[in-house]
Amino acid sequence: MSTYNTVPPKKITTHVLQEMKLKQEKISMLTAYDFSFARILDNAGVDVILVGDSASNVMSGYNTTLPITLDMMIYHASAVMRAVKRALVVVDMPFGSYQGNSLEAIQSAIRIMKESGGNALKMEGGSEILESVSRILSAGIPVMGHLGLTPQSIHKFGTYVVRATQEDEASKLVEDAHALARVGCFALVLEKIPAKLAARVAREVKIPVIGIGAGAEVDGQVLVLHDMLGINQKFSPRFLRRYHNLQEEVTGSVKAYINDVKSMDFPNEREQY
Ligand code: KIV
Predict the structure, then answer these.
(1) 8 in a domain, yes or no?
(2) Of 25, 128, 191, 248, which is the active-site residue?
(3) Which of 69, 89, 148, 237 is the most exposed place for a label (fewest CB within 10 A)?
(4) Is residue 53 within 6 Å of ligand 1 at its C-beta?
(5) Same structural domain for residues 139 and 44?
(6) Are 140 and 67 in the same domain?
């Protein structure tokens, strides 16, 4: 069986992602929130590691991404940064750290960059946050935009169904994508929108477009690590491909351990001093 090594030998930067778009080489992106998984992802050759505010759900057990704080995001991002040598590390700006005004946004952005050492930030929204995005960009901090089903707005949407299926929302999304690219965002995430719309955005804007539930005709894909590893079996949207059933595997290992302890099979003679 022939294997295709997609791991280029250099550190991934925003410029490398731009080159990948031009060469039509797809960008792989996954979330990580801790040192150990970040090291595995980086060694495996993933291009971009997102310290997503999905940590609110998968690491802290909240129902939405809203409760996670700036301090918590900095904690997760710092752990990831200690592990990563090659991937570009993008850190989500959490809900409430940038929506107020552009001064609050730049102060939050600077805290994340200084205290975690992350390489770039991701922010949800379009025209509403453009001033804050511009101010952060003008401080020399790379920003990735995020449009479509933006989980920080779940209370406005009221549901996690596909976004931008209607003309007005679709045309606002296209305008927002152009605006974010125009002010200087280095990439965009499009979440849970029709594949045709995502393909149109990826064709029209010059920056890389990374999809999650946005079809194949974009410049790359992102998934939440815990979902693709099957740690959370309750979450199974159509767009999710599960590569593992870690929940079952870990449960099996833990049960075997409990059994070994109770039956006094563990530790054996070789496992003691
Ligand atoms: O927080 C996150 O994990 C994300 C991805 C779903 C893109 O924003």
Answers:
(1) no
(2) 191
(3) 237
(4) yes
(5) yes
(6) yes
Write phi, then psi, for 92 (nearest 5 degrees). -70, 135
Nearest Cα residue to 83 out of 112, 116, 120, 55: 116
**Does any domain span residue 1?**
no
224 Cα to the center of ligand 1, angstroms = 7
Q: What is the position in ligand 1's atom list of the atom closest to the CA of 54? A: 1
Q: Annotate 51-85 with DSSP letters as a single string.
A: E-TTHHHHTT--SSSTT--HHHHHHHHHHHHHH-S
The two three-digit tokens of residue 265, written as one number: 């099979």
Give the residue numbers spanning the domain of 52. Answer: 14-242
Tokens of 160: 């996690």
Tokens of 104: 């609050």
Can you tell me the distance from the alpha carbon of 30 to that of 49, in angstroms, rounded to the nearest whole number?
5
Phi and psi of 63, rounded to 5°?
-75, -25
223 pLDDT more than 80: yes
Q: Are residues 252 and 125 in the same domain?
A: no
**Segment 229-258, tens digit of pLDDT:** 999 888 899 999 999 999 999 999 999 999
Does the structure show a pLDDT above 70 at 44? yes
**What's the gap in Å between 52 CA and the centre of ligand 1?**
5
**Residue 26 included in any domain:** yes
Provide the domain count of the chain.
2
Q: Is residue 224 in a domain? A: yes
221 shares a domain with 147: yes
pLDDT at residue 4 in the model: 57
Under a CB-based contact definition with an 8 Å cutoff, are residues 52 and 73 in contact?
no
